[in-house]
UniProtKB/TrEMBL annotation:
<dbReference type="Pfam" id="PF11184">
    <property type="entry name" value="DUF2969"/>
</dbReference>
<protein>
    <submittedName>
        <fullName>DUF2969 family protein</fullName>
    </submittedName>
</protein>
<dbReference type="InterPro" id="IPR021351">
    <property type="entry name" value="DUF2969"/>
</dbReference>
Length: 73
């Protein structure tokens, strides 16, 4: 017997942090990470403060979601 797929809502909200534009990645109402863009350099920041340098905004989202899935529960 297979498990039924579970739909999870992922949202991206733009906000300002320390004078910089930051996109927050949310699952439900919980912030799971942020993507920061400075001079065409992207940084994925997790809620525990861990940072990953990435090449694009899309790669930043992938990293945040992978790390969340890896370390949840």
């Amino acid at each position: 017997m297979s498990k039924k797929d579970k739909n999870i809502e992922v949202a991206i909200e733009e906000t300002t942090k320390n004078g910089n534009q930051v996109q927050q990645v949310l699952i439900g109402k919980n912030v799971v990470g942020e993507i920061e863009n400075q001079e065409n350099k992207y940084t994925a920041i997790l809620t525990d403060g861990e940072e990953f340098n990435v090449h694009s905004f899309d790669e930043g989202i992938e990293v945040v979601l992978q790390q969340y899935h890896l370390h949840q529960g």
